[in-house]
Design goal:
Length: about 250
């Protein structure tokens, strides 16, 4: 996982330096390091780059791009895990997802997968989404951090980093499927070039991803799941696994 993260950051640094008037080192030192060093930042520093650790660059097939991490904390445990839309099981233990205030986005995504595959959602599904990330689904937010109890706090600081990430992915010759789930993600659409594909340029999952889709949007959604399941061999059903009770 460490090697995967280092490989990603090398590629991101190279992509950043190709378009930016300031070096990646300077950008990181002046914009990102203060956020990473702030004890009020979530997720925990060790988890900030988890998406890059679990989804190696050359194995990424789908990118689901959200806004920023969950800002809630339970005691001293953050909801955010470093994977977009994933919830920290330790922060929400003994709480069913359907009753969880902070789990609306995850519930909506699991519902979309459930309907397409015809698989039910368990009462207590696995919420960390790590198995899905290992399938080649890069669960990325446009900002990798935020402040405790303050959404959107770090969006501007991470903008260059996210742009560099998408530009690095543009170097891939095989198509990568991008799911843009919110306005913040949609802003990066011009950076995604052929042969890569964009799907679901709709409302954020927390505001009901699947509600009121037009026939064209619904057709795109069906095609997305069919194509990524059959051609890219992504096992979406793994996201519907039941959580294992703590011993």
């Amino acid at each position: 996982m460490e090697n995967s993260r280092k490989d990603w950051l090398t590629r991101i640094r190279k992509a950043h330096n190709a378009f930016s008037e300031i070096s990646f080192a300077t950008y990181h030192k002046t914009k990102l390091s203060p956020l990473l060093d702030d004890p009020k930042t979530t997720p925990k520093r060790k988890d900030v780059f988890k998406a890059f650790e679990l989804s190696p660059f050359k194995k990424v097939k789908v990118v689901i791009l959200g806004q920023d991490p969950y800002y809630q904390i339970s005691g001293k445990i953050p909801y955010a895990t470093g994977l977009a839309f994933a919830l920290n099981p330790k922060a929400i233990k003994n709480t069913k997802l359907r009753t969880l205030k902070g789990g609306k986005s995850l519930r909506t995504i699991l519902k979309a997968i459930s309907i397409e595959l015809g698989h039910p959602i368990p009462d207590s599904p696995t919420t960390d989404l790590e198995a899905l990330a290992k399938e080649g689904v890069l669960l990325l937010n446009t900002a990798l951090t935020t402040k405790h109890n303050l959404p959107k706090a770090h969006l501007k600081a991470w903008k260059r980093f996210t742009a560099a990430t998408l530009l690095a992915l543009n170097s891939r010759t095989e198509p990568v499927y991008f799911v843009l789930t919110c306005e913040s993600a949609k802003a990066f659409a011009p950076l995604i070039q052929a042969p890569h594909k964009i799907f679901y340029n709709y409302k954020h999952p927390s505001r009901c991803w699947r509600i009121s889709l037009s026939p064209k949007q619904r057709e795109a959604e069906v095609h997305f799941f069919k194509d990524t399941k059959n051609r890219l061999r992504i096992n979406w059903a793994i996201a519907l696994s039941a959580s294992t009770p703590a011993s």
